[in-house]
Amino acid sequence: MNSQNPKKIFFVASEAQPFFASGGLGEVIGSLPKRILKNAKGEFSVSVILPLYAKINQAYQNKLVYLASTTTKLSWRNQYCGIFKYEENNIKYYFIDNEYYFKRDNLYGYFDDAERFAFFSKAAIDVMLYLNEIPDIIHIHDWQTGMLPVYLRTLYYHNEKLQHVKTIFTIHNIEYQGIYNYDQDIIEDVFGLSMNDGYLLEYQGHVNIMKGAMEASNLVSTVSPTYAEEILQKEFAHNLEYETKRIKDEGKLRGILNGIDKVFYNPSKDKALFANYDKKNFLNKTQNKLELQAMLNLPVDANIPMIGMVSRLVAHKGLDLVKDIFANLLQEKIQIVILGTGDTYYEDYFKDLEDRYYNKLRVIIAFNQDLSRKIYASSDLFLMPSKSEPCGLSQMIASRYGAIPVVRTTGGLKDSIKDFTLENGNGYTFEGLDAKEMLEVIKKALNDYNNKDLWQKQVETVMNKDFGWSTSAKEYLKMYEEILEK
Ligand code: GLC
């Protein structure tokens, strides 16, 4: 390929740091495009299309430049589509403005999400056409952007400009598929398609946007090699196993492990910390623990091992395992700090326990970047007992901050953390969905904690592990080149 004339990649996604994010997807869209551009050495240019939520980080709101407006037509609706632009590090970010759809308190969770994101997916194509910026590859993420390749196959099928565009769909979590009743109302009235095209979206009698994206894209990837295998199985596929097996058989399925942004997560510079430290000098790590203990009104004592959890409080994060052994675990000399939001059931459960074990347990129901960084920096152990985990970023961030991960070997956790008993081990792991097995591993870790020399060595090992994007960005580029050759 010739760097005078770079190929164009457009990422289209429903969230991205530092503008707005609700979880791991936002982190990946915030960091991967930068690494792709860096590694591509002029062979690719990178743009990102996002919805312009009213919730956009204030620091960026004033930096957006209004470019133009056009109209996106879906069925009988002619919707306003404003185009704003922001450029940083040679990446162009385009924001699609429509207050009716995006001026809301949250990013997701509305009765009309199918309509909101169908609009966004179609508007993304309209913006490319309007600006005459026709990509070679469109890389979409999760079901919210899943209608985009479906539209390329249907409404834009005869559009000459778009004939050579290739699409890649990345699944960040197969649990969320965008499932709706299958009827004329949604296919025709909401999506603006003809019933003849409905088959693209139909799965087991329902509309399934993720299935449509899998069917209509040229390649499908997911965020770790192990998860790419797991989603072929019933236990992990949330009913989509017939579709995942089909695309696997067609040679369309890939698994590439995520990385983290090592500049964004850097304990030697992170302003959220009480004290900065690095892998050569992490005495200040203890300082963080002491200050966090004081801040959270826990007993202040450097010698009490602290276990951190920063997690969405939902079932697939393995919280039932934690519940099963919590009372037992809290008998130990230990402090546990949990940060997250999610199902009321888990929120209430952990809050109740906090009352009972107030000198050992803090539960903070919030999504709070600043506090999460303080917890990573202060914790000695970081617990992630997920039932399933497409990739998981927290175990990587925890490692960078010297909190040793304790994980269940599933999905990306299996691909990133190996037990200390194995060669190049970098954490504690357990395999079964078995609370007792988990408890034993945690107890072993607590025992190791008392051996200061061993612990110090382990923390160094963990901090030395490179979870940056460099290897994975290369794999993405290989995938882009492969798809262009097809
Ligand atoms: C989702 C997955 C998580 C993954 C993240 C980024 O949040 O649940 O495992 O790390 O997406 O791909």
Explain what the structure shows.
The protein has 486 residues and is of the alpha/beta class. It folds into two domains: 7-259 and 470-485, Rossmann fold (3-Layer(aba) Sandwich), CATH 3.40.50; 284-464, Rossmann fold. Helix content is 39%, strand content 20%. α5 crosses α7 (209-216). The structure holds alpha-D-glucopyranose. The site of alpha-D-glucopyranose (GLC) has 14 residues, from α1. Alpha-D-glucopyranose (GLC) binds next to α1.
Name the descriptors.
globular, 486 residues, alpha/beta, Rossmann fold, 19 helices, binds alpha-D-glucopyranose, 18 strands, 9-stranded mixed sheet
**Gap between N and C termini:** 15 Å
Strand content: 15-25%
Low-confidence parts, pLDDT < 50 over ≥5 residues? Answer: none
User: CATH architecture of the largest domain, please?
Assistant: 3-Layer(aba) Sandwich
Classified by CATH, the class of the largest domain is Alpha Beta
Mean pLDDT: 96
Number of domains as seen in the coordinates: 2
What radius of gyration results from the CA coordinates? 23 Å
* Helical run tally: 19
The CATH homologous superfamily of the largest domain is termed: Glycogen Phosphorylase B
Helix content: 25-40%
Profile the largest sheet: 9 strands, mixed
For the largest beta sheet, what order do the strands appear in spatially?
3-4-5-2-1-6-7-11-12
Shape designation: globular
Using the coordinates shown, work out and report the CATH topology of the largest domain.
Rossmann fold
User: What structural category characterises the helix and strand content?
Assistant: alpha/beta
Cofactors, ions, other ligands: alpha-D-glucopyranose
Q: Count every beta strand, where a strand is a DSSP E run of 2 or more residues.
A: 18
